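queue> pop job 88
queue> type: inverse folding (structure -> sequence)
queue> payload:
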């Protein structure tokens, strides 16, 4: 059974603010994060479930799995639920102390044979070991642009041949007309989930300086530059996309 990830309803931006501070994964956000993420990312439950199902295909016995930017550990717990390979260890890493603390609580409450090591660290500085699967679930968008290629390269270098990277991101599009339409549809999605125009506006302002988006083409170029030859978009809804990138079986480690 999954641990109870119920939380307070997200009302972080419900009241008018004199000054909208930059968004941070602090205690205030961590307390409402399950509600925030479920009401803010279309298809999030499908993405999390599919990550677990992909683990059954790609996680090898006696190997490591990395969940980088793990937040409350939803992807880690999905892998833990689905994966049946023996000798597997999951490393859940996030640079937010508030998120890591709550992630550890969820991990402790979850039954299962696969151990999950929760670590507070900057993924750009993380020393990785050989692994069979890596998850970057809405993480890279919060990493400085100049660090992103090096992180993808580090992941590629440490993946075993046949290993899998799952990367999910909010994206922007080169066509301004299409981009504007998708943003409008996304805001309508949030309104339908109970967010007011004030909440949408204030959160967008809070994210402006901390969430820097790439186009799908830029993401794919980054992956292929690192060495991935099999890159496939498997999920898209509005301006949210997820890819799988597989390291060729014949690649050298």
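queue> result:
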């Amino acid at each position: 059974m999954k641990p109870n990830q119920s939380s307070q309803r997200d009302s972080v931006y419900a009241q008018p603010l004199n000054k909208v501070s930059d968004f941070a994964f602090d205690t205030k956000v961590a307390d409402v994060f399950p509600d925030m993420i479920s009401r803010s990312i279309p298809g999030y439950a499908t993405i999390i479930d599919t990550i677990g199902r992909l683990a059954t295909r790609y996680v090898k016995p006696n190997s490591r799995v990395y969940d980088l930017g793990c937040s409350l550990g939803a992807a880690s717990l999905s892998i833990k639920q689905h994966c049946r390979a023996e000798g597997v260890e999951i490393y859940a890493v996030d640079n937010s102390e508030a998120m890591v603390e709550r992630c550890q609580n969820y991990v402790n409450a979850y039954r299962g044979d696969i151990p999950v090591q929760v670590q507070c660290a900057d993924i750009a500085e993380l020393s990785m070991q050989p692994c069979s699967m890596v998850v970057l679930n809405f993480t890279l968008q919060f990493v400085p642009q100049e660090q992103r290629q090096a992180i993808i390269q580090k992941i590629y270098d440490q993946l075993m041949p046949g290993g899998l990277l799952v990367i999910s991101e909010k994206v922007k599009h080169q066509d301004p007309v299409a981009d504007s339409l998708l943003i409008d549809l996304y805001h309508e999605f949030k309104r339908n989930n109970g967010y007011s125009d004030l909440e949408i506006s204030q959160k967008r302002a809070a994210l402006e300086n901390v969430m820097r988006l790439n186009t799908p083409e830029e993401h794919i170029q980054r992956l292929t530059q690192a060495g991935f030859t099999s890159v496939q978009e498997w999920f898209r809804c509005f301006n949210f996309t997820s890819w799988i990138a597989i390291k060729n079986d014949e690649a050298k480690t």
